[in-house]
Specification:
- GO terms for molecular function: glyoxylate reductase (NADPH) activity; hydroxypyruvate reductase (NADH) activity; NAD binding.
- Belongs to the D-isomer specific 2-hydroxyacid dehydrogenase family.
- This is Glyoxylate reductase/hydroxypyruvate reductase.
- It comes from Agrilus planipennis.
- Pfam families: 2-Hacid_dh (PF00389), 2-Hacid_dh_C (PF02826).
- The protein is an alpha/beta fold and 314 residues long.
- The protein has two domains: 109 residues, Rossmann fold, CATH 3.40.50.720; 183 residues, NAD(P)-binding Rossmann-like Domain (Rossmann fold).
- Helix 1 packs parallel to helix 12 and helix 5 packs across helix 7.
- The longest helix has 19 residues.
- The chain is globular and about 65 Å long.
- The two termini are 27 Å apart.
- The mean pLDDT is 94.
- It binds (2R)-2,3-dihydroxypropanoic acid (DGY).
- The site of (2R)-2,3-dihydroxypropanoic acid has 6 residues, from loops.
Amino acid sequence: MNNYTTKNIIILFSVSRFELIINNQSNPTRQDIIDKIAGVDALFWYSYERLDDEILDAAGSRLKVVATMTAGLNHIDIDAFKRRKIPLAYTPTVLNKAVADVAVLLALAASRRLRESRIHIEKGLWSGFGVQYLLGTDIENSTVGIVGFGGIGQTVAKRLKAFEVARILYSGHREKPEGKQLGAEFVPLDTLLRESDFVIVSAPLTDETKNMFNDSTFAKMKLTAVFVNIARGAIVDQDALIRALKNGTIFAAGLDVMVPEPLPIDHELLELPNCVLMPHIGCATFKTVAAVAELTARNIILGYENKPLLTPVY
Ligand SMILES: O=C(O)[C@H](O)CO
């Protein structure tokens, strides 16, 4: 956590006279967490460690409220909270714009061959002007398919307007009223895969979406398609994606999320010239992280005072 964020949280907590136990490790192990949380009143969760009965037991009976500093909830056993009637908060909405920016960033970077371009400069392969040199695909007049049309997906659609795309398609469980307002068409997933030049994943990770992008889904996409994932790595069968990128089943990919995280430095994904990677930093701007941290802290204070949470999970 940067100093800006830490300061923000400390201000909020000091107002409520909380005693803070701060875990400054960037990647604490599960055991590190368990060792530190016995007897706490509240948990400010900024980890993708599973938040379940084991953690709640380790915290103990004083625990009054938990707030996760994430919009995604796939690491949380929500039923465990319901059973124990422990209020649980998360941070939807505040990070939509920052994450949507990264979706567009990755779409452009992958379609315009950013990684390959840099390799060319670094390795001295840039020999001058060439009419066929490192040609990419255009976003203007393209069809963009958004899988998962919640707050982030809709914010991506708003941003795409500026690029004068021809069509925005989306798929999901149901048609959304916001779709019409944004000029986006609700279509079955197969149609979206077949017709999209860019496929952007912004769906939550659930049993249903796990591995939904696999050999069969990539085979339905255009050979020129650019695939972007800013949601969760496990939505994609990563070996199938690697095959698709190597065999030319699709043109390129841009990923902010992958499996595992952190990605080992000798991972095959890093060797693919047509794959742009970011280390799961979709919401990582100074302002957004401060806002997300503040919302998390406010939820904790409210929960501790038995007041309704600003953004409850259930
Ligand atoms: O779920 C979230 O909030 C994002 O992935 C950032 O961690």
